[in-house]
């Protein structure tokens, strides 16, 4: 089967979305144009498991236009696919196995199609493709030149494989590029999370108490946007004392979830861990509390506990499930506990994904050019590539910066200068 998507007749609508994204992704478009001329990926077979959005579509097209022999794409979330974009990509010559509303079985079947395409380089978001290549498809995994990983959750899984000596190929942790996590995780997720919450509920954030679980780069962005939208109180819960202290110094309240549970109107999880909000927290929540997740998997709001506490359940709006507890209180879970910004909205703005996917493109090129020379480890993106993305982004924004003088360069290299 060459591709499997919802409806190929949606391709024209998808092309319009792709055009819009291209207009707002100038760095990736510049790399794409250069790739068309130089074809640095000639003959390369690429397999990707990413959210199938218009921004991902621009990346897939850039890889194909840079000479890739075949590009195969599946979704990294059962509910995040933009079906019109998927159709447009098939029309462009990319093999796509993705549609919105997949069952768990369908989701993993699609990822298997990517694995069985025998890719040279793999791109992943969350680590499900990497995990499959290290379990069901070890032989195929051993043939891979290298891979990339887009998100914190996936990097954690890959680091675990590395520690156990099981990693089959080198991986570039694109998530760890400064031009990824400082902007995508913080500004992208911060904005798109509330975009998803507001599209799903149409509630007013101003005057509400917002509880943010986790104060990594994603949590920082969510807390910042909650404050900007006029939240009455923004409360952060953390297990890391340094991050908790940072949240305090950033002007947010910090307390355990056991205390925040009875205060919050809106809860957003962003930890990468499971059961962050669970039975003892649900039991304390106000009637009408809204539960959303911005972490990669739907395990942070622990749905089995919510189900066991409930006597009634119904979908009251698109992407809003109402749970009625035994005492009559109602709690509202958004997007089935999955990534609210991708399920209930469109994901990150194109402008920020421009940098993230420029890093993905350059990481694929780096792995291809260094085939056989890298150890089976998780690597951070080379600093020079990170700086290239930043400089290109500034240039496309019409912003110029200073350069060091030769004397300044010498001063910074010397140990002999004193007071």
Helices, strands, pairings?
Blueprint: E1 4-5, H1 11-23, H2 26-38, E2 45-49, H3 54-65, E3 70-74, H4 83-92, E4 95-98, H5 104-115, E5 121-124, H6 128-133, H7 138-141, E6 146-149, H8 152-163, E7 171-173, H9 178-201, E8 209-213, H10 217-228, E9 233-237, H11 241-249, E10 253-254, H12 257-260, E11 266-269, H13 279-282, E12 290-293, H14 303-309, E13 310-317, E14 320-325, E15 330-334, H15 340-343, H16 350-369, E16 378-379, H17 383-396, H18 406-413
Helix pairs in contact: 1-3, 1-4, 2-3, 2-16, 3-4, 3-16, 9-10, 9-16, 16-17
Describe the overall structure.
The chain is of the alpha/beta class and 419 residues long. Helices cover 45% and strands 16% of the residues. The chain is built from 18 helices and 16 strands. The chain has helices at residues 11-23, 26-38, 54-65, 83-92, 104-115, 128-133, 138-141, 152-163, 178-201, 217-228, 241-249, 257-260, 279-282, 303-309, 340-343, 350-369, 383-396, 406-413, and strands spanning 4-5, 45-49, 70-74, 95-98, 121-124, 146-149, 171-173, 209-213, 233-237, 253-254, 266-269, 290-293, 310-317, 320-325, 330-334, 378-379. The strands form two sheets. Strands 1-4-3-2-5-6-7-16 form an eight-stranded parallel β-sheet, sandwiched between helices. The chain has an eight-stranded mixed β-sheet with strand order 10-9-8-11-12-15-14-13. Helix 1 (11-23) crosses helix 3 (54-65) and helix 1 packs across helix 4. The longest helix is centred in the middle third of the chain and has 24 residues, at 178-201.
